[in-house]
Amino acid sequence: MVTIFRLILSCLIVLSITVGSYAADNTEIRELLSKHYQLDKPDGKGPFPAVMMVSGCSGFDAKFAKAHYDSVQNQLVELGFVTLRVDYLAARNFSNCAGNVYTDEVGDDIRIAADYLRQQSFVKKGAINVMAWSYGSAGALLALRHSKSQEAAQVDAVVAYYPYCPGVMPWDSEVPVLVLVGAIDNVAPLSKCESIFAQLPKRDKLTVRVYKDAHHAFDNFTLPAEMQYAFGTLGYNEAAAKSAWKEVTNFLRK
Question: What is the CATH number of the domain that holds 89?
Fold first, then answer.
């Protein structure tokens, strides 16, 4: 696990300046993503609101994270949401993002997945949301940015757990965004996000919740309360996790 997290740290440092570098064939990546979509839905024809899940750098299948992502997906389905995993790692045949995947590639993958969901008859239009973690959150926030070559992702809300903001740029979309971060997160600290948030033209669309005594990955119940690594600290905080989940469910139901 130490090796995995060292790779993650290396990835975050190297890729913090990579915005705008992605120019891959959209058709090719669309096909690769579709092979790894993991979709789950409530019983019935719907239409249902939807949530795209976007993992952190280590992916959905990492030993320390798999049960966490499975639990989130199950809870969302129980709440009445269609869920779709946007597996930017599996689509490229990587087990982690370290040196492999740019944050703007993740943002493009989210755009593609949103298009896919809009085509499904059981998905409620105007209720396609994103829930992302860490490196995935950076991609989700980048997806909200207009560029010369493409529009912002056509999504209706974004939940960003502890985004790694050095790879993020201010966005101009009016999509509501909920950011959830630990007060003592030293892997992706809120301080790295504040200058970006200050430049947003629609600050009223951004909600930031900071949780006392919470580290990076504070919502991952498979982790111990504190794990020290050279790059920072990870750890589960039950009180913060429960409070954040209540915030998330209220936000997505609006």
Answer: 3.40.50.1820
